[in-house]
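Hi F.,

I've been meaning to write this up properly since the lab meeting, where we talked about keeping a consistent format for the predictions we share between groups. The idea is simple: the sequence comes first, exactly as it goes in, then the structure tokens exactly as they come out, then a line or two of notes. No screenshots and no reformatting. I'm using this chain as the first example so we have something concrete to point to.
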Amino acid sequence: MSIVDQLMVLLDDQDELEINEIKKSMHGKSKQVISSSLGRLCSRGWVKKRHKKSKTFYGISSEGREEITKNLDRIRQFEKSNWDGSFLTVLFNIPEKMRKSRDVFRNELTELGFAKLQGDLWITFWDKREVVEKTISKLKIDSHTSIIRIPKLSSSDLEELLKGLDWDETELNNRYKEFISVGQKFIKTKKYGFPARCLVYEYSKILANDPIFPKEFRPKNYLGKKAYDLYSKIRPHCYKY
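Output, unedited:
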């Protein structure tokens, strides 16, 4: 798990922390590395800092909390994966002069569980229209995008569509394997708190690269369900009541 993500998890659970307090929780990380990572988070607008006398305090911003919520919402998507048989497609043709917006939009589609079908045609099994429309409006690319809802397909058409999806199953399974390995070791420690919250957040970040196929279409070697079952065991360890 990246130090940036660890800091997000740590600060999300606090009002604000002074740099030396942060270092105590970030075992093995130097103050210089932590300060540099906090600087990147501040530049993104996800963390805010406050100076008081000779000390600097850091806290999660509203934008940072929104980012965390967006990531954790993917877990709820996995839990609610009851498919109605339809698809949502997004087709875009964003000019080169808007390359930055185009790259941001592609990343957003990936994180929402869209898979590339061909060219700039992306597809998902889930109704993500509302959040896609918000992103389109924010990036001001309305005139370069189209959103189309596709009703149920025949079995043969559906089979062809699934064959054409461009996604890296091997890379995804490798990330799940790593999560499962680390998570199983953590469960044996019977610890609570920050390490568990980091694992839950890491799991949500892995889901960003998972199209979350309906159960009936998941590949035979897919490790997502095993990872979810382990996450369910880790989640109660996030807080000790």
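Notes:
DSSP finds ten helices and seven strands in the chain.
The chain has a mean pLDDT of 88.

If this format works for you, I'll send the rest the same way.

G.
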